[in-house]
Design brief:
two-stranded antiparallel ribbon, binds calcium ion, Laminin, elongated, single chain, alpha+beta, 22 strands
Length: about 375
């Protein structure tokens, strides 16, 4: 049974709209322009891939929402060439701004996409392969690169022996050279980088592993297999690289008000406690001597309570407050400092009383 056109047209034409979008964007990347630059070659493939992914997703969504059990036969029968062309025109106006940069539309590409949709999608279900690789030739199969889709170094199955990226992999650009992962080096990413050793090596596989933290270079995993010790490490009697204790040196590498803290392969300088003049570690019990305002008590620099002395804060109406390492003198309650003397604070009500008294006396 035939559905009414008004309700059936939207779901029916939706896949075609995706085709239009696809066509429009791809047309911005005509093969004639692909030789322009390396960047453009890679971008051309990335764009084609992106469009195919969105197209596939769009088709999947449309099928789920509108076709349910599928009505492809009816759809193909109803969708006329005239409707497709009309939608092409409509979308060329609306969709072209989504793609970059604008360029003239080629009839040839328009036809490629239509051809695939109506005639080839069963025979070539992989639209990416058919369109991007085989037809408009902006991409290459995985593991190959360049104009002729040559195999990457180390072969297309495992480019760069699985230890790096092949330049231009899957695109019509690049030179197939390997960009090795950090652990690997060499043309085929089979050699180990500085600081790594070969833990497995045969004709096809190479595994490089990081040296022990103590080694600059090495032949194996432990600190006895270093070829050279890293800075901050020193070779001991057993020919192993061990941490150098910088803090044990006769002259401390730290400042006078700091203590030295040894760490694996390095050291750090930390501030002494406020009560110390020089120290050997953290806290007031590691002082070499005490700062003024502190006194050594039980091998610990302790605050001196100056307020216990009769010689401090001797002005009238003045109190002493002890602080860590010092003390301060403040006026007692209801007194305030005026020109170095503590005077009684006169409250607002008292002022008013005094003012009224003056007025009464005068008038
Ligand atoms: Ca150290």
């Amino acid at each position: 049974m035939r559905r009414p056109l008004s309700s059936g047209l939207a779901p029916l034409l939706l896949p075609s709209l995706y085709l239009v979008l696809l066509g429009t964007c791809l047309l911005l990347l005509p093969p004639s322009a692909l030789g322009a630059s390396e960047q453009r070659l890679r971008q051309a493939c990335a764009t084609c891939r992106g469009i195919i992914e969105r197209f596939d997703q769009g088709l999947a969504d449309t099928a789920k929402k509108n076709f349910g059990g599928g009505n492809t036969a009816w759809e193909e029968k109803t969708l006329s060439k005239y409707e497709t062309s009309f939608l092409f025109l409509f979308f060329l106006i609306n969709v072209s701004s989504w793609c970059f940069p604008p360029s003239p539309i080629s009839k040839e590409h328009e036809e490629h996409i239509e051809k695939w949709w109506f005639k080839l999608k069963k025979k070539h279900p992989d639209l990416f392969k058919w369109l991007c690789i085989e037809t408009i030739e902006v991409c290459c199969p995985a593991g190959t690169y360049g104009t002729d889709c040559l195999a990457c170094r180390g072969g297309s199955e495992r480019p760069c022996h699985g230890n790096g990226l092949c330049e231009g992999d899957g695109t019509r650009g690049g030179d197939g050279a390997c960009r090795c992962n950090r652990e690997y080096s060499g043309e085929f990413c089979l050699d180990c980088s500085y600081g790594y050793y070969s833990s497995l090596r045969n004709d096809t596989h190479s595994v490089c592993t990081a040296c022990h933290n103590a080694c600059k270079t090495c032949t194996g995993a432990s600190n006895t297999e270093c070829e050279e010790c890293k800075e901050g490490w020193i070779e001991n009697n057993e020919e192993a690289c061990v941490d150098m204790d910088e803090c044990a040196e006769e002259v401390s590498p730290c400042k006078d008000d700091q203590y030295c803290l040894n760490t694996d392969g390095s050291f750090s300088c930390k501030a002494c406690d406020d009560s110390c003049v020089g120290c050997t570690g953290e806290g007031p019990d590691k002082c070499k001597s005490c700062m003024s305002g502190y006194t050594m008590e039980d091998e610990k620099c302790t605050d001196v309570n100056e307020c216990n002395s009769a010689e401090v804060c001797t002005r009238e109406n003045e109190d002493c407050i002890n602080t860590s390492g010092s003390y301060k003198c403040v006026c007692s309650e209801n007194f305030e400092n005026k020109d170095g003397t503590c005077v009684q604070i006169v409250k607002a009500g008292e002022w008013l009383f005094a003012f009224k008294t003056i007025l009464r006396q005068k008038y």
